[in-house]
User: Which sequence fits this backbone?
């Protein structure tokens, strides 16, 4: 389990209604790599503990999906009745946000945060209902799977081949008071599926051949852990003076130039990023007083293409001071590894003007510098 707790993880038990109205509720988000990891069960487990401590806990919306253990865990907790909505002659059920606001519990439990509300509802998405509840000063516990994050949609499609239609904006994760990863191994999750603890028996084999393939689960698990690690890191950054915090992830920055060896540097950086499971960035510092030739522009476009192929982010800035520009970018993106090509300057130029590497050693105290040897007479720029 990874937990990001910026505030107390328990609702306030001694606040009056007027006091509660003046503050935004706390949001604790239980996140997992796939259905069946135990997010809802864990949420209910914590709810019972808080109820025993005197906290007014109520279920706003619970989706058991026929799982007996989950349904049994909900026994003893008050449930706000669902709202009935008639759509095209069919009566459908949805969470009753107005009833929750009227009930004013200290803590409300809301399952399946990415759910799309039935047509005719006051709001389109369940997370929007949760935001209204939080604004009313009510604390919320909710659940979601990693594949429902908006920014990860394309990645999830590549991993599983499945397009996830129901998504939540990333800011929901960023704004959460606390985020908890409910983590199990892919093997354990597959065992639960086979035992019928996740889906009905007729869906098991199909699920094993599709979403619940081991390679999918391994990738989704890593995605969930890394996403919440990012969330932890951002929280540490905002709460630590002068940005002096420990990075969770390695980040590789490849410094490019108009010299043809940039492709070689990018390949070396991509290999390092793969080994370290790090994010890859490529930086080109453009001198604002100089114009790129057509050949140099083509070379730069080739570098951008390579960077994209390697899954990296290309950054281009204007600054006459290269060392300053690299330092600023490295600090902004929390870079831990910087890759540079061997200097093309003569010894006299280095003695007279100083070495870029020497400057970076002074400026970047906690960053590893990798100097890649290059040919003295490099070939013509890439086209």
Assistant:
């Amino acid at each position: 389990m990874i937990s990001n707790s910026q505030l107390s993880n328990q609702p306030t038990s001694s606040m009056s209604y007027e006091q509660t109205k003046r503050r935004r509720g706390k949001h604790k988000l239980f996140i997992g790599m796939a259905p069946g990891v135990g997010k809802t069960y864990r949420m209910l487990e914590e709810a019972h503990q808080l109820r025993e401590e005197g906290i007014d806990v109520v279920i706003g919306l619970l989706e058991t999906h026929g799982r007996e253990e989950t349904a049994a865990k909900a026994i003893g907790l008050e449930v706000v009745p669902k709202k009935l909505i008639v759509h095209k002659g069919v009566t459908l059920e949805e969470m009753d946000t107005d009833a929750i606001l009227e009930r004013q519990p200290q803590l409300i439990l809301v399952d399946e945060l990415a759910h799309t509300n039935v047509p005719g509802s006051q709001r389109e998405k369940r997370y929007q209902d949760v935001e209204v509840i939080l604004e009313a000063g009510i604390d919320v516990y909710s659940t979601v799977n990693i594949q429902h994050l908006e920014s990860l949609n394309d990645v999830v499609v590549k991993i599983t081949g499945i397009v996830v239609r129901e998504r939540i904006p990333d800011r929901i994760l960023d704004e959460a008071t606390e985020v908890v990863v409910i983590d199990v191994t892919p093997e354990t999750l597959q065992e639960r599926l086979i035992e019928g603890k996740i889906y009905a028996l007729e869906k098991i084999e199909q699920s094993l051949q599709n979403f619940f393939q081991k390679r999918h689960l391994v990738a989704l698990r890593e995605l969930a852990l890394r996403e919440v690690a990012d969330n932890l890191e951002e929280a540490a950054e905002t709460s630590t003076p002068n940005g002096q915090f420990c990075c969770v992830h390695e980040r590789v920055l490849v410094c490019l130039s108009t010299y043809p060896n940039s492709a070689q540097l990018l390949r070396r950086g991509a290999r390092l990023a793969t080994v370290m499971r790090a994010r890859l960035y490529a930086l080109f510092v453009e001198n604002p007083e100089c114009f790129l030739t057509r050949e140099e522009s083509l070379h730069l476009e080739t570098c951008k293409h390579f960077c994209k192929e390697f899954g990296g982010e290309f950054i281009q800035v204007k600054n006459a001071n290269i060392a300053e520009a690299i330092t600023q970018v490295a600090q902004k993106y929390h870079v831990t590894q910087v890759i540079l090509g061997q200097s093309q300057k003569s010894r006299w130029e280095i003695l007279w003007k100083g070495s870029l590497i020497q400057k970076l050693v002074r400026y970047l105290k906690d960053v590893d510098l990798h100097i890649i040897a290059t040919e003295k007479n490099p070939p013509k720029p890439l086209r």
User: Anything to note?
Assistant: The CA atoms of residues 285 and 322 lie 6 Å apart.
